[in-house]
Structure to design on (160 residues):
């Protein structure tokens, strides 16, 4: 089943899980979901401070677990491609650590999308093993971890 605008607006969980509409993109919904995180991160960096940023990200993670579960059930696919709140939350976490200057944001975006698409171990195993809202969120958090490690190593190597 391919979700529609009607589906998106039918339940608050669908609106959240589909990344406020980004998951309706006909191609690359995960990429569009990742892009949704950018204005949110910019606003949080500007107005919320570090604690507020982390609290907001944790809250969206918890809400995302619920929303992904409800929406996955409704779509009859636990990790349907249109569910992109996991990309939003994971990329918010990446941007918390990398910062949001244009170059850092671009590098972080490419790294995160690479690991989210390629799914090196254990990302693929987490994705396959946990067919729930938590599983939907966790595989992207592991991809975020990979992106952050590569970003940190690259920063360290280039500053030496």
């Amino acid at each position: 089943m391919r979700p529609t605008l009607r589906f998106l607006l039918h339940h608050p969980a669908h609106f959240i899980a589909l990344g406020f509409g980004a998951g309706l993109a006909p191609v690359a919904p995960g990429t569009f979901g990742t892009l949704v995180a950018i204005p949110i991160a910019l606003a949080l960096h500007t107005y919320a401070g570090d604690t507020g940023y982390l609290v907001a990200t944790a809250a969206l993670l918890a809400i995302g677990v619920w929303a992904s579960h409800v929406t996955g059930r409704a779509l009859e696919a636990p990790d349907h491609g249109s569910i992109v709140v996991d990309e939003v939350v994971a990329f918010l976490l990446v941007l918390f650590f990398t910062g949001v200057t244009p170059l850092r944001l671009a590098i972080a975006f490419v790294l995160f999308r690479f690991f989210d698409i390629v799914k090196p171990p254990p990302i693929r195993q987490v994705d396959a093993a946990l067919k729930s809202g938590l599983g939907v969120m966790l595989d992207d958090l592991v991809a975020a971890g990979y992106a952050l490690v590569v970003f940190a190593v690259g920063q360290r190597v280039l500053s030496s």
Notes: The chain has eight helices and no strands. The CA atoms of residues 122 and 142 lie 8 Å apart. The chain has one domain: 5-159. The chain has a mean pLDDT of 93.
